[in-house]
Write a structure and sequence with these properties.
Length: 156
């Protein structure tokens, strides 16, 4: 079962585990496939095992636009265990659903870094809304060390 801020939460009728908003939604999936959608100013996603989907929704990201930034405090989301980046892999394949952004929106790699604590490879991305110009920042900890490629994310 998935949890939000440490509390067990069932998926909604669409199969999506919804955050509860506020300053932080700390969302964790179970052993299977989970779809997690944070509503907070900062959303932490931990999918666990299974091919999980992390939703970045323009509706909620719009509450906390900071402009393009590498500062952790300015990130809208942190995906703590992104699995299967860089295209097909035979194991778990996580996915990022970019929901509600305007026509012509694009995802760009801003920076590749290393976590000072774990040594993990961190990829910093920006989503630029093609209509409003708003920028949403997020970071993935890529378990296999690769960056996102086609098939790892899509705009809806
Ligand atoms: Ca999972």
């Amino acid at each position: 079962m998935a949890t939000v801020d440490g509390v067990t939460v069932a998926a909604d009728v669409h199969g999506v585990v919804q955050g509860d908003g506020g300053a932080v939604d700390k969302m964790a999936g179970g052993a299977g496939k989970d779809t997690l959608e944070g509503h907070a100013a900062f959303n932490q996603y931990f999918g666990g095992a299974g091919s999980d989907t992390f939703v970045v929704s323009a509706k909620f990201a719009g509450l906390a636009h900071e402009g393009a930034s590498l500062a952790f405090a300015d990130q809208y989301a942190y995906m703590a265990d992104f699995q299967g980046a860089g295209g097909y892999s035979s194991g778990d394949n996580d996915f990022i659903a970019l929901s509600g952004f305007g026509a012509g929106s694009h995802l760009d790699l801003a920076h590749v870094g290393t976590s000072g604590t774990s040594g993990a490879t961190l990829y910093y991305y920006t989503i630029t809304d093609g209509v409003t110009g708003d920028v949403t920042n997020f970071v993935i900890n890529s378990v296999n060390g690769h960056g996102l490629a086609a098939g790892d994310y899509a705009f809806y």
